[in-house]
């Protein structure tokens, strides 16, 4: 199956967000990646469930919500009600990761787990059977336009192995610094979903940008 592309609206023009989302959907995006930042877990603030609920009616595409917030349990139901299809929480932000993942499931949303570049991959092994998405940050979270950290791909390879050994079916996604140059290494390592913000929204031709990332050769 071909690699899925998830444009991150963090790099979109927010004054015309509807057009920006329609443009990438038209260009072949599979998911819309929505970066929620609280100014505590990461040194940046973006938006919350109110903005998500105005995006929801624009598309049937999967809304992939990446929560970069402390104590995400407090907001799971609100993001579920606002229309998230996937909610991904940081292993570093959850005091009781298993409980948080189950709260997401109980809210009727697909649960995902994400880790920062310096977090050991072993942290997520006990939760793999409960998640539908494993996201590896290939930059330190907080901002778009940063440089890809290739060492993270060793963690991707380990997750691919565990998925096989345990007979599981979660998707593997990477986020940060993905562009037409770095996409090949990610796909070779076994990534299923590529998040890309600046490499798509900084280009005029969004379809062209998506195609270049997906068909990296
Ligand atoms: O979660 C984040 C950043 O914390 C990302 O989703 C960025 O939005 C990716 O941006 P690029 O690195 O692709 O520009
Ligand atoms: Fe993200």
UniProtKB/TrEMBL annotation:
**Catalytic activity annotated for this protein?**
D-ribulose 5-phosphate = D-xylulose 5-phosphate
* Entry-linked Pfam families: Ribul_P_3_epim (PF00834)
The domain of life for this entry's organism is Bacteria
Alphabetized, the UniProt keywords read: Carbohydrate metabolism, Isomerase, Metal-binding
Catalytic residues?
35 (proton acceptor), 175 (proton donor)
- Cofactor(s) this protein cannot do without: Co(2+); Zn(2+); Mn(2+); Fe(2+)
InterPro entries associated with the record: Aldolase_TIM, Ribul_P_3_epim, Ribul_P_3_epim-like, RibuloseP-bd_barrel
Which SUPFAM superfamilies does the record associate with it?
Answer: Ribulose-phoshate binding barrel
Cofactor binding annotation: Binds 1 divalent metal cation per subunit.
Q: Which GO terms describe its molecular function?
A: D-ribulose-phosphate 3-epimerase activity
The record's annotation in NCBIfam families points to: PRK05581.1-4, rpe
Family affiliation: Belongs to the ribulose-phosphate 3-epimerase family.
Give the protein's function.
Answer: Catalyzes the reversible epimerization of D-ribulose 5-phosphate to D-xylulose 5-phosphate.
HAMAP family for this protein: RPE
Question: What protein does this entry describe?
Answer: Ribulose-phosphate 3-epimerase
The top of its lineage is: Bacteria, Bacillati, Bacillota, Bacilli, Bacillales
